[in-house]
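Supplementary Methods S3. Input chains for the assembly prediction are listed below.
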Amino acid sequence: MTAEGALTGALLIGAADVPGSAGEFRAVDPRTGARLEPAYGEAGPDEVRRATELAQQAFAGYRQTDLETRAAFLESVADRIDALGDVLVERVRAETGIPRARVEGERARTTGQLRLFAAVVRDGDWLGARIDPAIADRRPQARPDLRQRMIPLGPVAVFGASNFPLAFSVAGGDTASALAAGAPVVVKGHPAHPGTAELVGRALRAAVEEHGLPEGTFSLLQGAGHSIGTALVTDPRIKAVGFTGSRSGGLALVAAAAGRPEPIPVYAEMSSVNPVFVLPDALRRQGSELGTAFVASLTTGAGQLCTSPGLVFALGADGVESFLDAAAAAVATAPSAPMLTSGIQAAYTAGVERLAATERVRTLARGLGDPAIGAPGRPALFVTDGDTFLAHPALHDEVFGAASLVVRVRDTAQLHEIVDRLEGQLTATVHAAPADVGAARELLPRLELIAGRVVFNGWPTGVEVGHAVVHGGPFPATSAPATTSVGTRAIERFLRPVSYQALPAELVPDELADGNPLGIRRLVDGVPDRH
Amino acid sequence: MTAEGALTGALLIGAADVPGSAGEFRAVDPRTGARLEPAYGEAGPDEVRRATELAQQAFAGYRQTDLETRAAFLESVADRIDALGDVLVERVRAETGIPRARVEGERARTTGQLRLFAAVVRDGDWLGARIDPAIADRRPQARPDLRQRMIPLGPVAVFGASNFPLAFSVAGGDTASALAAGAPVVVKGHPAHPGTAELVGRALRAAVEEHGLPEGTFSLLQGAGHSIGTALVTDPRIKAVGFTGSRSGGLALVAAAAGRPEPIPVYAEMSSVNPVFVLPDALRRQGSELGTAFVASLTTGAGQLCTSPGLVFALGADGVESFLDAAAAAVATAPSAPMLTSGIQAAYTAGVERLAATERVRTLARGLGDPAIGAPGRPALFVTDGDTFLAHPALHDEVFGAASLVVRVRDTAQLHEIVDRLEGQLTATVHAAPADVGAARELLPRLELIAGRVVFNGWPTGVEVGHAVVHGGPFPATSAPATTSVGTRAIERFLRPVSYQALPAELVPDELADGNPLGIRRLVDGVPDRH
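Predicted structure tokens for the full assembly:
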């Protein structure tokens, strides 16, 4: 950057700083309502086209980088984000109101994720190498040599999310997994944190330059309007889209992508209420502790997490009052917290009012009000019964923020009916004590059909970035239920298999060459190759 | 069935023979134009609903069958198809006009495919088992135990294809891979071969009964209209669709699936012209032989193969006349062949007439006419130059049948321009002699971006069913470019990952249990588990 931490308000298009041509906008400090400098220029159609043209030009070279170069590049991005130090932390705090400890935790997750994908790249398993050798004497016809590997789809558009300004934004999971796959990335930063986006974007660009990669490997577009996103998704050079955000936003991108002459996949992580099921023995033994722990999960990040527990189903009468009392007490002493944007705050307030006004839904507790902050996300806890929940489909909807509805469920039959009517979810959580094992065994096959991750005796907030995690799930949790946007499997979203038949030895890529020069895992006639 | 080979015209809905309620239709022998007995009842909305309800009921039980039971079931289906013997061969011949040797070859491919998926099921690699063990002493938080596996999406609708009455039909690749994944299947048979569909459907149903599987594991619906397909794809119990057929048909299903309250994936294999690139040294050395071999591929199956070579690009002047002369001679002596249906015949005739009428496109040869057959698919060969090809986008379109266009390409630059403007393809083929290696090296990265399979010094027709094959490709070759509809990877289309966090040991499924009781390949912390 021009000087450490000096923000310019420019778009980062390949190696060039470009002023936006379609108006300007500023970030707002949600803690104070103050508008932040500098002004950011919005990308117009020319800037979108320039970024995608560069990405297309970069594709041929970037996708053929060797594994070590690509891995080292991802590690450089992580190192450079770390090196931004407090300049980055303070800008994130100013643009989002997220407390320091969470910002630092999110930064560690973000850089850890980049380093994990570097390891994934080196490992080479993602190349999906398979060889079915020729069988010259097969009858009636000889069998030809076939070799298969994964190649990247092409340039990827990534949309930054409001609630994870680092981990799901410019150098977040979508970007890391796309770059790992060999796909150039054009990011559309979230307009709530353009300065954070610029800082991280410059770190990423510097890593591109350090490793001599084509400049179009990465560009950062910014803008507060919707037209830039539509322009990006409908650009013919873009071949896949990663998005984390609202259901309406995700569905708009899905529709735009489906309407292209060449439709492309949109990996949108959209909407989830993350139901929690407290089974009778757990409720009886631990009602009070679970009530307290539930609210700790609910109020994390002012409830602005994709995995925030928005519904709790309590089965059984014994202990339910303890659970409700403890939860109500925890909510009543929970402070309000600034929400990420005024739009999110307005939607939260409307959602809470809608819940409060629903017949047979009782407001159990509200958090502490705090007139000193500009956008108070005041926690809210509601309670109803299973019949009411089944009768009001609107009670299934996500209220993004620290609001949750506890549903007292009559019996197992009603619990199963509820589960079977829930929409797709990122997570489903079960609290089960020893005597609940039978009930849990009945519940589990239903829950795995509606959720990407099933949690036992824990809480859905807090997503591990590893190999076995799934951050995904059936519609409307995501637009692509067979994928995950967190963890090492996320790379698969940007790859497709290609098969080579009777490829001359001098043209065979290293990952498929005889003798396995890369030393990667391969299937030969369907059996793992020893190396 | 009621007696071996005795066709009833009934729909096979679970264990019941059900008469269709929405009219009736009959197959036609394309060799004679004769209408064949029996009449088939068309499925109406009630029958569609009944089949999907049974499939949904079967899902919970079928998906939890142990690997050995599921594998043995698939093998039984293969054995029972083999046991149909000549009854099946003759019915296929009567309904499609396909010669005996090809029917027998397709039957072997179909049963081999079922047995291959049985081996895939037993192998267990498709379960994608991953374990990230807990780390209790990690700071700042303990790491929870996470275990991931693949589960099936739910009941799958499969549409039979006209051109592969066995291999892409009732018990074809889509059905075999969906059943392997643990998904019940509702097949909509192709109306051109309802008797073939009934014979194979009864074999499949008998295998369901033999293994004590839920009756809704398989149903066969039939019908000649479009409404049954729409009803099936928009039925909320159906969770994925497999289709092989026309671009318009595939896109209609994609649109119907996208418009559902819960959109679902459609794996449609649609349209491909399978370009062949003959490089200068190959043209010079082998022009004549290549011309003859090309026409052998073109006329296979009367050109009614998804991988039929509809475009040939010849680079260089030396040898091109030999290539054209040999190809023209081969076409001129190639017999006409009955096409699969009158609709396909009409579209073929129109396509050939369109090519013949295009300015600067010359008709090089037509096959032998045969007034004795009802629907003569008379081969047709055309020639043009690269400038004309680039100027007429309609010349890129598929003409389904034994018609092909040879394009004389001026130079490498024009060849690259052409490749970059081609739509997505199932295959791309290169003929390269030793001196062509440099040109092939430049061409390969372009071809792999537009095709699912790149063939060297061979022909695209003939698709191996193995581990390393890809029968897929960028849009419009398919609606889902990251998948294949042939080969062992096809199972992945019907699966999605689920992650279990801190699952109690007594609830852990065998594939994720400590000690690896199934002995399958698993990743532990991203590293292959030894067993």
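Chain B is about 35% helix and 20% strand. Chain B has a mean pLDDT of 95.
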